[in-house]
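re the bet — no i am not wrong, look at it urself. input seq straight from the record:
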Amino acid sequence: MHAFRTHTCADLTAANVGDTVRLSGWVHRIRDHGGVLFVDLRDHYGITQLLCDPDSPVFAAVDKVRSEWCIRIDGEVKARDASLVNPKLPTGEIEVFIRDIEVLGAAEELPLIVFGDQEYPEETRLRYRFLDLRREAMQRNMTLRADVVTSIRKRMWDQGFREYQTPIITASSPEGARDFLVPSRLHPGKFYALPQAPQQFKQLIMVSGFDKYFQIAPCFRDEDPRADRSPTDFYQLDMEMSFVSQQDVFDTIQPVMQGVFEEYGGGRAVDTHWPQISYRDAALWYGTDKPDLRNPIKMQVVSEHFRGSGFAIFAKLLEQDGTEIRAIPAPGGGSRKFCDRMNAFAQKEGLPGMGYIFWRDQGDGLEAAGPLAKNIGPERTEAIRQQLGLGVGDAAFFLGGKPSSFETVAGKARVVIGDELGLTETDRFAFAWVVDFPMYEADEETGVVDFSHNPFSMPQGGMDALDGNPLDVLGYQYDLACNGYELVSGAIRNHKPEIMFKAFELAGYGADEVRKRFGGMVNAFRFGAPPHGGCAAGIDRMVMLLADTANIREVIMFPMNQRAEDLMMDAPSDPSSDQLMELGLRVIPTED
């Protein structure tokens, strides 16, 4: 007999009745029913019910075990009484009578209980992550993650891609976030960087003639944490292709992503039509570049209905350059109570409020209600209603000014309205490509121009596009949004040195600096670089959606906390004086 088990805790069925078996696992739960002990034994695969009565030679030993002790038992498989069969368990038809027991690992008093669905502070869960991971939901999430990665790899290989590994220690690169720097012992005073992404290397792979590359790549960014983003490291499906257009990349990644979501989406519908929405339209309609298309609400510009109207706040706003009024339709939101609640929401978000109109049936016809309706009159309110396609029992909310001042709040309000009015479908994955990103953006205070997205993207129109206003230049850049999250980001790359130098020049990077920071890529592009492009899909965020959780730490095996600390391993930690001396470094204490 095997030293630890003949079966897993999910294997035994009625066909095994009468067999002598050996099982190993953790004590999930113990119940004492009038002197008969019932023990649920758990391993990675499932649960088997054990029993032990005073006739057993090891009754006293079994009576000593506690939750989460790791044990090995020998016993005889018995059939449960028909009334005691548990159809929810694969092993629910049987139980194992314990004949022998060995304690493989006793457990001290538990800081968190594995059995059940108790909620614990995140600090406790992360400090004792090895216990947290024993819980059923976490076992399920981590198994899902492993299965998703395996499925992605298979689907990429099936499309003719091969997986190549790129360096983890490299040079610093402006990818939109802070680098993690690594001091060099052999070159005192100089630093490597952990890659924010394999961007330059995957482009160099294309220059090297490999045509189709992918990698499940670790990426490292020193970022502020969010619920949907890890503050230190994450994994992505990284891919690149040669001799392709933007549409070729879309046609390649869609079946991979769609197939994974169909396979692991738990029966939820997966959209097969992925619309392409310009960045400008996404901002206008949804207030974000990662729209949730499960919500049918589209915002519209209604400025003309307020220009010169009796609502002085909006009328005066529209006299200023670059301002507009946008409406958020709210089908079914036509009550003063709901409108007041949304107005309070806007105030909590830092705005003075949101104007609103709601329409009700007064018996002799439709009436527009609310302070805003009284100020602009029936003709304008009717024109607004007609434009938005609204009717009795509906409402509309209004925000005005320069779009940059209210767009984010408008997007959040659209989400809240869709959720509260039951307009957003919850059992569906809705995808959309967001395209035509601006290459550059200007700082509102200083006016300084910098890249708004990936600096290695090809500008639409090539060199000619760079001769005009940089803020008018669009890039071959694209994101894939799903249910309000960015899942994929990518671009057709700038593979021509002269265009690359010009693009960086507009963002304030001189030719010497470009050569210094991207010398390997610039040099490679001098020797016959093919047109190429690709994208990267966030593994953690994909699994977060598939697991139906809003916190990315629920699908990462050993995540950091909100302060970028590993409580279990006590990282970051203080280096020893010997380590600092060897690296030629000195730590300057910070003032509290």
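see?? The mean pLDDT is 94. told u. also The two ends are 62 Å apart (CA to CA). so pay up
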